[in-house]
Design a protein that fits this description.
The protein is an alpha+beta fold. It folds into 2 domains: 78 residues, no CATH class; 117 residues, no CATH class. 16% of the residues lie in helices and 28% in strands. The longest helix is centred in the last third of the chain and has 13 residues. The protein is elongated, with a radius of gyration of 19 Å. The two termini are 32 Å apart.
Length: 217
């Protein structure tokens, strides 16, 4: 239904002649919406705060330094149809960005180990684990809204068919597909202030989140 509505919108625009091209480059995406007033529950999807991990877990570290908790995704909360995501389980994400620039352990966003993922298949034996430092940061409950995505710009696909005037229309249409700048799947953006996390398709199918990649901009 989302795809049909998108193609109808294209037909009524000044880039209608490229409808077939756009139908071929569509990708499923899932917007991440923030609910700042919602109270987080055990095992719910959220940004920040403290993670919910299996009872008895140890806090993950990189070269003996503690990771910072980034957020967690409860896949059961995503209305996922043919999107290749797990139907259940909790993914906790950690980031190694709290190191001093002069420290030998400092990592850049594109380096191995910058992002650490812990996938928990069953969510029945969880406890909220406080980080090893005192400041846990703000917690924001999130929810998910299925949508679709198209390439960010001409650098993401070959044979870009739009001239300058059409590119402006294209950008407006692409922006209208998202209700949030944060999303799963789709195409990556080029924003230098946004952390993007990547996983290989086969690893995703096998629920293997042990070698996540990341970049910023």
């Amino acid at each position: 239904m989302i795809k049909n509505n998108f193609l109808e919108m294209i037909e009524q625009s000044n880039i209608a002649s490229h409808k077939e091209y756009l139908s071929q480059v569509l990708r499923p995406a899932i917007d991440i919406l923030r609910h700042t007033d919602a109270e987080p529950q055990l095992g719910c999807s959220r940004f920040g705060g403290a993670p919910d991990l299996p009872v008895g877990s140890e806090w993950p570290t990189y070269e003996k330094k503690p990771y910072r908790f980034l957020g967690q995704i409860n896949f059961a909360e995503i209305a996922s149809t043919e999107r290749g995501l797990p139907s259940k389980g909790l993914l906790s994400l950690f980031v190694a960005d709290d190191y001093d620039d002069e420290d030998d352990g400092y990592l850049e966003a594109f380096e191995d180990g910058y992002i650490h993922g812990i996938y928990i298949p069953e969510t029945t034996n969880l406890e909220t684990m406080m980080p090893p430092h005192s400041d846990i940061g703000k917690t924001t409950v999130i929810e998910f809204l299925p949508t679709i995505d198209i390439p960010y710009d001409e650098y993401q696909l070959k044979d870009w068919p739009f001239d300058d005037a059409q590119s402006d229309i294209y950008t407006e249409i692409r922006d209208s597909l998202h209700k949030s700048s944060d999303y799963l799947l789709g195409y990556p953006s080029h924003s230098s202030d946004k952390l993007m996390i990547f996983i290989e398709i086969e690893r995703l199918k096998n629920l293997d989140f042990s070698r996540l990649k990341s970049d910023a901009g």
